[in-house]
Amino acid sequence: MKIQESKVTFKSGRVITKYALTNNNGMQVELISLGATLTKIIVPDAAGNFENVILDWQDLEVYESHPGYFGAVPGRTAGRIWNGQVTINNETYYFYKNNNGNTLHGGKVSFAHRNFDCQAVIDQEGAKLVCSYLSPDGEEGYPGNLQVKVTYILKEDNSLTIDYEATTDKDTIVNLTNHAYFNLSGDAKRSVLEQEVYLNSDEIFATDENLIPKGTMISVDDMPEFDFRVPKTIGQDINSNNEVLRYGNGYDHVYKLKDKGVAAKLFDSISGRCMTVTTDAPCVVVYTMNGADSSLMHSNGKSSKPNYGVCFETQRPAIGYEEVFKDLVLLKKDDVYTQTTTFKFGIL
Ligand code: G6D
Predict the structure, then answer these.
(1) Residue 243: in which H helix or E strand, if any?
(2) What domains can be seen in the chain, in order of their start residue?
(3) Is 179 a catalytic residue?
């Protein structure tokens, strides 16, 4: 195991730190302290070619404010909050409305755009990066001083585990995830439309046209476009005229997981790469990058294009109409929020 680190100073004067964690098989994970962001995951294909399997930006300064949250930890609450407000203990808190009159991924300045304090260490578990951030009471409208810790662990079995932990001194809401855009072709040489997905889920949260949960569920038996219980390519149904699919202009929906353990799998038959996602989170948002800013360049030298990445954002549900599901993202004073997710890479 090896860890390298270096400082980068942005034009804004902001100083961030870059990290590269490498295991003894040659798998490499690169991160930056800004947003506790994953910038590269480099794994071999069936022919032994080591290539990056997540989308990252050529210019690191794009990460300072990009609304795609590439590889970052959005927060204080990943996902959406209906009408940008929540009532806790009879007090109503108001958040910045940055998405169709609702709040998305923590509001105006998400955790994705905050610089974390990171410590690198190698121990018996693997190569670790422990990223901490103290979100002050009232930041982005949220109550409570929230101490956040996100730990990335690269292991010798070619897996990357992300452990999330948060504590607060006042009842608040919290919902953390990682917003990496995966593409197993390697250096995003192809779109993800021909890559296959498996999901351990029978139902999605029903939403309105702005992807706000309504409080009910939809069985994938009734909407087979969303059924990934048998692996199928992302492109098979993505352009169907299903109304719910069109709300997201593709997949951008919260799946309720059947149980803890394997949540999802991603396969690329051309490169031979595969990835297994396991989590103790109750849900996963599958997002197929349904829009892109073509003026921006990924590190492969190509401009950003839709459907060149797929996200598996393991998390709790969003807060929907009339604050439905808010109890599932509540964190009481003196309780501890935890979530752990592992991405394990292999060859078909
Ligand atoms: C879009 O609706 C999607 C979100 O789900 C996603 O997280 C974001 O882009 C990056 O707003």
Answers:
(1) helix 243-247
(2) 2-347 (2.70.98.10)
(3) yes
For ligand 1, the distance from its centroid to the CA atom of residue 305, given in whole angstroms, is 15
Alpha-carbon distances, residue 243 vs 206, 207, 223, 233, 296 (angstroms): 11, 11, 10, 20, 30
pTM > 0.90: yes or no:
yes
Compute the distance from residue 123 Cα to the ligand 1 centre, in Å. Answer: 36
- CA 63 to chain centroid: 14
Distance of CA 236 to the CA centre of its chain: 23
Closest by CA position to 315, among listed 279, 280, 265, 281: 281
Sequence-distant (6+) residues with CB within 8 A of 235 are: 191, 193, 194, 307
Which residue has its alpha carbon closest to ligand 1 atom 10? Answer: 68
* Interval 85-132: pLDDT, tens: 999 999 999 999 999 999 999 999 999 999 999 999 999 999 999 999
The predicted structure's pLDDT at residue 71? 98
CB neighbours (10 Å) of residue 65? 12
Enumerate residues lining ligand 1, CB below 6 A: 68-69, 99, 104, 211, 252, 287
Query: Of 105, 179, 253, 298, which is the active-site residue?
Result: 179
Residue 121 confidence (pLDDT): 98
Length of the chain: 348
* 281-310: pLDDT as tens digits: 999 999 999 999 999 999 999 999 999 999
User: How far, in Å, CA of 132 to CA of 138, rounded?
Assistant: 18
CA of 68 to the centre of ligand 1 (A): 7
